[in-house]
Q: What sequence folds into this?
């Protein structure tokens, strides 16, 4: 009887989100990485399509926050490591079967590309900026001549980075909630949505705001579809997957997920964006801020609920 009470107490601790220790490092890392990936994707894609002047904020302004996002995300990941002095070992080998290896090497490529992109557009922020050394002038000239190549690299690797933020979870087979292939495209879509929200928030051009509001509206629809599809897949699978879904369907994560992520982070912003696109006047910042809030909460809730989800023995 005593052993049963001990086991019961442990299980209650595992499934109660208010009793858990909310580890903030990994969810924050995934949120910042997905956001940076989305911003760089839109910047590169609009450059390839020749829309630099039409959508200048997405191409030339918002990418300036991506180095900060990437460095802050890597710092959060570093703080979560148990053996911090050995992080460099990730870069001594490439393991194609390891999502962490994919992520480490992708970030190794994306981060310098983000700095290069900022350097090519730095005069948009500081018009009087001039490179003092000739080798820097020559380097800028070289990158500017190959800007299309850099843009294509950013499109490819930003998509890999966005998908990786979800695959990092789905590779953990021991957690039924995370063991789904939908997390990759779902996290990518969420990252693109938060990036579109940032562009709407920062842009002062009516045309650009409406263009990215429409994109965000489409991405929100895709997110809702993927979320519904994920739960339908769980409910049609094994008992442990059904119990994982039940954490959100009457279980301890029901209110935070459906309120903070679905209602406040997806449905309400979508309604506000539809109203704005139809000409209703309202504060521009409300919908983007709600999308960013919902994206952050989504990663925190999935991270913590996944730890409560486990196979039965």
A:
């Amino acid at each position: 009887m005593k052993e049963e009470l001990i086991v019961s107490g442990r299980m209650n601790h595992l499934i109660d989100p208010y009793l858990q220790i909310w580890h903030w490092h990994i969810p924050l890392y995934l949120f910042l990485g997905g956001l940076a990936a989305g911003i760089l994707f839109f910047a590169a894609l609009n450059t390839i399509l020749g829309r630099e002047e039409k959508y200048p904020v997405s191409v030339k302004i918002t990418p300036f926050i991506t180095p900060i996002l990437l460095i802050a995300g890597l710092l959060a990941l570093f703080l979560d490591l148990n053996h911090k002095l050995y992080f460099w070992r990730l870069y001594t080998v490439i393991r194609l079967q390891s999502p962490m290896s994919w992520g480490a090497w992708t970030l190794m490529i994306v981060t310098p590309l983000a700095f290069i992109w900022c350097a090519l557009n730095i005069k948009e922020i500081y018009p009087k900026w001039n490179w003092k050394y000739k080798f820097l002038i020559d380097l800028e000239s070289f990158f500017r001549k190959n800007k299309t190549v850099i843009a294509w690299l950013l499109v490819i690797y930003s998509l890999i980075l966005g998908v990786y933020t979800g695959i990092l979870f789905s590779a953990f087979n021991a957690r039924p909630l995370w063991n789904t292939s939908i997390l990759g495209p779902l996290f990518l879509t969420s990252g693109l949505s938060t990036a579109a929200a940032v562009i709407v928030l920062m842009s002062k051009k009516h045309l650009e705001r409406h263009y990215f509001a429409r994109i965000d509206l489409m991405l929100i629809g895709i997110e809702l579809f993927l979320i519904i599809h994920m739960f339908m897949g769980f409910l049609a699978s094994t008992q442990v997957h059904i119990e994982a879904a039940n954490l959100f369907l009457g279980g301890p994560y029901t209110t935070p997920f459906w309120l903070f992520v679905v209602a406040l982070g997806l449905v309400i912003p979508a309604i506000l964006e539809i109203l704005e696109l139809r000409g209703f006047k309202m504060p521009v910042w409300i919908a983007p801020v709600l999308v960013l809030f919902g994206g952050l909460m989504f990663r925190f809730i999935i991270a913590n609920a996944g730890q409560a989800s486990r196979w039965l023995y």
About this structure: The two ends are 19 Å apart (CA to CA). The mean pLDDT is 86. The domain at 22-308 is CATH 1.20.1630.10 (Formate dehydrogenase/DMSO reductase fold).
